[in-house]
Amino acid sequence: NNSYQLSSVPLQILFYVNGIYYIFYFLATLAMIVYKSEVFSYPDDFLAPDLALLFIMAILEVPRLHLGSKGNLTEEEAPLGLSLVITVGSVILSVYFLVWQTYVLKADIILNALLLFTYGLESVLKVVAIAAFVS
User: Which UniProt keywords apply (predicted)?
Assistant: First the structure.
């Protein structure tokens, strides 16, 4: 076993930044869904799924960040790999809010593009970290 640390500092910082950004993302997206439901004719059968998917995404974010952080700090590939798998689900949900939700505003595009960028960067760093732990 190597005496030097394999855990990724940039990845750990990114988990932290992502956690804070996600709270902002969640509140902003929630506020916009409420705003859209007031301003636009938002059919009720579309409002519920949009809200449900946002809450599912928020619930996924907790184990995603926890497992990623834990896996990185303990230098174990399994939790990090699981976090990577959950990230795929989060990416799909983010793309939903970017492209397929009932009303997509410019703010939605900016919020989701930034989220997808951080997910992408995080995923690359996870793969690098997993490769380092496995080798």
Answer: Cell projection, Membrane, Transmembrane, Transmembrane helix
Q: What tokens were used for 110?
A: 């900016």
Residue 59 backbone dihedrals phi, psi, to 5 degrees:
-65, -40
Q: Residue 69 and residue 14: Cα distance in Å, rounded? A: 10
Kindly report, residue by residue over 24-46, the tens digit of the pLDDT: 999 999 999 999 998 988 777 88
Q: Which of 25, 32, 33 is nearest to 49 (CA)?
A: 33
Where do the domains of the chain lie? 26-38+49-134
Residue-wise pLDDT tens digits, 108-131: 999 999 999 999 999 999 999 999
Tokens 């790999």 -> residue: 81
Residue type present at position 68? G
Please give the C-alpha separations between residue 35 and each of 28, 45, 105, 108, in angstroms, as whole numbers: 10, 16, 11, 12
Give CA–CA dist 107/23, Å, rounded: 16
